Amino acid sequence: MTTTDFLTAWRAGNTQFTLQTSGSTGAPKPITLTRAQMEASARLTGQTFGLHPGDRALVCLNTSYIAGVMMLVRGEVLGLELTIVPPAGNPLVGFDPATTQFDFAAFVPLQLQTILADAGPDNVPVSLPLLNRMKAILIGGAATSAALENALQVIESPVYATYGMTETVSHIAIRRLNGPQKSDLFTVLPGVRVGTDERGCLHITAAATNHERIQTNDDVELIDTEDTVRFRLLGRADSIINTGGVKVQPEAVEAIIQQQLLQWHLAPRLFITGLPDERLGQRVVLFLENQPLATDEWIAIQTAVRDAVGPYAVPKAWFTVDRFSETATGKVDRKGTVITMVV
């Protein structure tokens, strides 16, 4: 469904809309959402970020998927003035940073990384004045790297990582990424109820889920206080590597490697996965996008992982790929990348 088709259907009063999941953790599948669910999600976003009628929002995500569609719905429900541009690496190109006013925008990590890398002669991001005038900036669709989180500290406006999915009708929790309120914990939004199953994986119930429980495969550490519910995202239960009988969470290893690379001013996309191994069952391996490693760098990475989480989590090999395979929404397709490399 195109942007025009969706807005036409919405303004005609349609009560159900069918969207595709992103396909980042499995085959894309159609999901039908009700108008009431989408309106509830939009109102929650408006309440969370103090959005009011007449505020200006930039829509620069693919509107065939939930993140982009919900920007359209927020415009309709909250009375926002929308500027809609095609998805691009740097969607702010063409806007005068000195005079353009956006109050709200959502990006995928690669977009914001590209925006911040576009610097002028003074080494300051060209679009920084535009970003600094926003009420809130959202980043979703994929995890933010250590390098990007460092780069975000130049932005004065609050920047948030979002947690959500098509089934929850966009975000149900947010994590501050910059400034003194920066945190490694996601804060659950008002009216959203969460808990964990026997695996420690998050489940979600909210008006945006039609008050039905959505069970995820996301392994979390839940921190429930008197007035606020927070959680630390540990990784996905279905991505755990069993190597020699020891379970390794790839996301924890990835964070260690990102920090090590950052010391050398390197910030490639990367991921950890398990490949079949006759002795171990699975061996831990590292995939890097367009980034070779010198022998001493590889040894330093292995040492950093061993010191932080133990010997079984240490990658046994690394591969560099010119460009990772991606899903339709720009997320890294780990399985596709591995197949391309190994086959």
From TrEMBL:
- Family as reported in the entry's similarity comment: Belongs to the ATP-dependent AMP-binding enzyme family.
List residues of the AMP-dependent synthetase/ligase domain.
Answer: 21-181
Q: What are the recorded GO MF terms, alphabetically?
A: medium-chain fatty acid-CoA ligase activity
InterPro entries in UniProt: AMP-bd_C_sf, AMP-dep_synth/lig_dom, ANL_N_sf
Which Pfam families has this protein been placed in?
Answer: AMP-binding
Question: What is one process in the GO biological process aspect for this record?
Answer: fatty acid metabolic process
Q: Which SUPFAM superfamilies match?
A: Acetyl-CoA synthetase-like
What organism is listed for this UniProt entry?
Fibrella rubiginis
Which protein is depicted? AMP-binding protein
Q: Which PANTHER family match?
A: ACYL-COA SYNTHETASE, ACYL-COA SYNTHETASE FAMILY MEMBER 3
